[in-house]
Amino acid sequence: MSVRLQTCVLAALLAACSSLPTTGDGVVELRVEIPADLTLEPGENRALSARAFDRTGAEVTTAIVWETPDTTLSVDPATGVVTGIASSGTGRVQASTGTLHSNLIIFTLTAPVTTSP
Fold first, then answer.
1. CB atoms within 10 A of CB 25
2. If we measure between CA atoms, which residue out of 38, 49, 35 comes closest to residue 106?
């Protein structure tokens, strides 16, 4: 491939990226690390983490807020620590920064396992 053609392809790709929606901080993507175990008992915790990236793929330092629309679990808005409340059902958690939101992370709530002596 000629240098000129490579330059044109790169310019087209960069132009396409320029129309991505961004937040005020230039964030176009949130990458959430999802734990392997998405089950919670009442009182049990799971820590979530997320990172924000701009359209060039560089990580952006910005506040990420965690929230849930459900009452089966709670989430600390600043730290992303999720705590089980209910002993059955599901609970959803989402990360956001500005107007950008991650996909919902769905937890399954279970009753504690009791063993008899």
1. 14
2. 38
> How many Å apart are CA 14 and CA 8, to the nearest integer?
10
CA atoms of 63 and 97, how far apart (whole Å): 6
* DSSP secondary structure, the chain, as one string: --HHHHHHHHHHHHHHHTTS---TT-EEEEEEEPPS--EE-TT-EEE-EEEEEETTS-EE----EEE-S-SSEEE-TTT-EEEE--SSEEEEEEEEETTEEPPPEEEEE-PPP----
Average the pLDDT over 64-73 and give the result.
97
Amino acid of residue 117 = P
**Whether this model's pTM surpasses 0.90:** no
- Among 57, 60, 63, 64, smallest CA distance to 32 is for 64
Q: Give me the pLDDT at residue 80, please.
A: 97
Report phi then psi at 27, rounded to 5: -75, 130
